[in-house]
């Protein structure tokens, strides 16, 4: 399972930050590794240098074997909060999609 972490120019993200989010995603979504070929996470700051509540955006795209990609988006005041909310959303989507594939 491949995990890509990306950010726009307004988001300060070093390699340690990318490694942290990669490890968190892998731990949180490990049970889906047989169904998902790639996760792509994209962080952005929607108001650039302004300190606006809810301006941090996290998008997670999950590439599921034999299906179209599933995409979720979350906004929060901090990257970690937006990431955690997106993890919860993609987990719910993947549970539903995989249950459908199994015929439940």
Tell me what the structure shows:
The structure is a single chain. By secondary structure, this protein is α+β, with helices and mostly antiparallel strands. The protein has a four-stranded mixed beta sheet with strand order 1-2-3-4, with helices on one face. It contains two helices and four strands. The mean pLDDT is 91.
Share in helix: 25-40%
Q: How far apart are the termini?
A: 24 Å
Q: Report the sheet-strand fraction.
A: 25-35%
Order of SSEs: EHEEEH
Shape: elongated
The helix tally amounts to 2
Taking all residues together, what is the mean pLDDT? Answer: 91
**Rg calculated over all Cα atoms:** 14 Å
Low-pLDDT sequence parts: none
Secondary-structure class: alpha+beta
Strand order of the largest sheet: 1-2-3-4
Q: Report the count of strand segments.
A: 4
Major beta sheet summary: 4 strands, mixed
Short description:
The protein is an alpha+beta fold.
Name the descriptors.
single chain, alpha+beta
């Amino acid at each position: 399972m491949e995990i890509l972490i990306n950010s726009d120019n307004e988001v300060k993200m070093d390699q340690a930050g990318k490694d942290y989010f990669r490890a968190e995603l892998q731990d949180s979504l490990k049970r889906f590794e047989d169904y998902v070929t790639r996760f792509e996470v994209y962080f952005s700051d929607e108001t650039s240098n302004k300190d606006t509540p809810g301006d941090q955006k996290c998008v997670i795209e999950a590439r599921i074997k034999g299906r179209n990609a599933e995409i979720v988006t979350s906004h929060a005041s901090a990257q970690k909060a937006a990431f955690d909310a997106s993890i919860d959303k993609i987990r719910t989507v993947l549970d539903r999609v995989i249950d459908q594939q199994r015929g439940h």
